Amino acid sequence: MKLRRTMMFVPGNNPGMLINAGIYGADTIIFDLEDSVALSEKDAARHLVYNAMKFIHYSCEVAVRINHISTPFGYKDLETILAVKPDLIRLPKAETAVDIEEIDELITAAEIKHGFLPGSINMMAAIETAKGIRNAYDIAAASPRMVAIAIGGEDYLADLQTSRTKDGKEFFAGRGQLILAAREAGIHAIDTVFGDVNNEEDFIAETTRIKEMGFDGKSVVNPRQINIVHEIYTPTEKEIDHAQRVISAYEESLTRKSGVVSLNGKMIDIPVVKRAQRTLAYANAVGKNEGGTTL
Amino acid sequence: MMNGVGREIPESIVGIKNVKPYIGPFSYVPTGRLTGSAIKVNKPRSEKVLASIEQAIEASGLKDGMTISFHHHFRNGDYVLNMVMAVIAKKGIKDLTLAPSSLNTINEEIIPYIEQGVIIAVETSGARGKLGQLLTSGKLSKPTIIRSHGGRARAIECGELHIDVAFIGAPACDTYGNINGVEGKSACGSLGYAMVDAAYADKVVAITDHLVPYPLFPISIPQTQVDYIVPVEAIGDPKGIASGALRISKDPRELLIAQYATTAIEHSGYFKQDYSIQLGSGGASLAAARFLKGKMQKQGITASFGLGGVTAPFIEMLEEGLIKAVYDVQDFDIPSIESIKKNRNHQEMSAAFYANPHNGGPIVNQLDVVILSATEVDVNFNVNVITDSNGVIMGAVGGHQDTAAGAALSIVVAPLLRGRLPMVIDQVHTVCTPGETVDIIVTERGVAVNPLRADLKENLKAANIPLMDIEELRNIAYEFAGKPDPIEVSDKIAAVVEYRDGTLIDVIRPTA
């Protein structure tokens, strides 16, 4: 099971950060060609990211956030970056399924051109407007390449004519819609960044909140945020123990070819098994299920 | 002669008495007796306080060719060394050997005195900036001798480094020569390095900006060792002497290195109730203190003692009961200075008690774990902390050799790449600490265990850290940065690096 607890943005025009992006343990790194890169630096960032991806072996999932295809940079970004086979293309400011379908076609063409396995490059989209939220399911389901949708931060709040609050009321409707759309489409829901890197307390509160809402992970802007998110997504010993017992009971029922699964006299249905599998996947990600420890 | 770390050491070196090549960390067995200062006498009601440094220099009998010493507890806030050297130069005294416990950038002011021949030789722990460049240039008539803190204490106590006159910056001094470092505007905390000088120098001059009526207490350096006292306006700049509490690094790479280092400690087998620890003052070391604290709290482990080089995170752990006692040879920040002043479990110690390998046993021998930094490391685990990537002196050996040899587990932390330079390489330019005393190298991309420590390697398999061979680390570094060309040097010897036992572990030659 692929986890995307943390998707870390790395500015595409910073060579030092590109070199070290992979060492901090983020589930996904996102090389950014969009908002963190000044207009005058767009070319340089595109070529730096291209060369970094060509030369450096990153052991985690590598995504590239391209500029929107309605800007003068989007198509060039795709043309350059697809040649070095990113795991994932992230489109910003997605509003309709048409955006996704167009990029899907470009990716398909690039896969043929470069001889990559068809369908091997995934996509995700960030939704940053009210219109996008209304179309969230259509966007999420627009292509089999789609693996995640994310809610964008500042643009979305500007569109909503509100601003950040401590307890995140302003995001409540958008996050709710996003998670429903992602679940219906069967893909990941990723939360927005929390920019105040030194405010650990509010970051923990927000991450805990979005985990409870059902989000699969969070975009992060600094390596220091990674372990905090992973810690929050790490199941407790008790949860792991229960999940292990559910899975053993389930596996035993399979060998017995019995349709009924029970644990301690209680019936277990398939959603419980699925939840247990998910718990163990998160435990495995931090080595907690194998006798190791978190960092 | 090829020494024990594969470095070519000449049979004889002009200006160095009795060249002995390094063999192994505990191979050299000393013989003979300790030395001592000149016998002193002081009649009742005689006056030790003099009006000027010049008078003190005259009274001390300082002459051409003698050896003078200073301590570096004031670090980059030190006024004493420059002030005294200016007077000495003015008096026309020359051919001196300067033997301070270390040199800082602020001491660059003395460069003209080296060029004029007032100072013709230097014996110290290290140097930076222009002074480092000068000591690497080979322009001095004798090679500079680089010694660790323990090695310097040893050299003084056994007579290899005989100090004629020690000038001791005294943050607080009474009218009969009792000194401590915890009071006055230039308080620096422990006076650990100066203690050895005071005990063994023929003449001891205290220079103070806080002269108090007799008697002063607590006493770090006693009246019995002090000959003259000179009150001056200021012996240092408090801002340069100690910072506020050093802040924990926010550099994610340093934090990652610190996490790997503390996870390694946790799984090493040494992380037990009543273990002991020394941490450096670098970014990764300070961050390691915070992570270690978390692990100790979580697992209910307390340490029997902490050693240092003391910084605020250590003091926090002492005050919270996580460390039972702190032994202190120098303080880096204001919280540490405050602590040594008021906390009975925070003890001052001399450099000899700390690290001299040739006594009944320094405290480093009792140390379980130390975290050390490095400029560069090689595939034989040898560490360089003295020369930069151009081969120029830009650091100090400090307690590196001593704690690496003494501690049961010595961990060296270093970034794998600094800018575009690899830091794990085939051969370090200058060996300071021999690889056989280094157990683990921690970088941001991987952790390598010395093959001599199969036990550790086994223990660390359970830890969630990227273990790899040291050659693999080097390969990653080279892959990014390329293999650096060896630094071209001339035949001359500009400096020798002593191992703590007095044998030569390496020489530093001027760069071509």
From TrEMBL, chain A:
InterPro entries: Aldolase/citrate-lyase_domain, Citrate_lyase_beta/mcl1/mcl2, Pyrv/PenolPyrv_kinase-like_dom, Pyrv_kinase-like_dom_sf. GO terms for molecular function: citryl-CoA lyase activity; magnesium ion binding. Mg(2+) binds at E128, D155. Keywords: Lyase, Magnesium, Metal-binding. Its cofactor is Mg(2+). GO terms for biological process: oxaloacetate metabolic process. Pfam families: HpcH_HpaI. SUPFAM superfamilies: Phosphoenolpyruvate/pyruvate domain. Substrate binds at R65, E128. Residues 5-223 form the HpcH/HpaI aldolase/citrate lyase domain. Its EC number is 4.1.3.34. PANTHER family: CITRATE LYASE SUBUNIT BETA (PTHR32308:SF10), LYASE BETA SUBUNIT, PUTATIVE (AFU_ORTHOLOGUE AFUA_4G13030)-RELATED (PTHR32308). This is Citryl-CoA lyase.
TrEMBL record, chain B:
InterPro entries: Citrate_lyase_asu, NagB/RpiA_transferase-like. Keywords: Cytoplasm, Lyase, Transferase. GO terms for molecular function: citrate (pro-3S)-lyase activity; citrate CoA-transferase activity. SUPFAM superfamilies: NagB/RpiA/CoA transferase-like (SSF100950). It catalyses: citrate = oxaloacetate + acetate; citrate + acetyl-CoA = (3S)-citryl-CoA + acetate. Pfam families: CitF (PF04223). Its EC number is 2.8.3.10, 4.1.3.6. It comes from the Bacteria. It is found in: Cytoplasm. This is Citrate lyase alpha chain. It comes from Pelosinus fermentans JBW45.
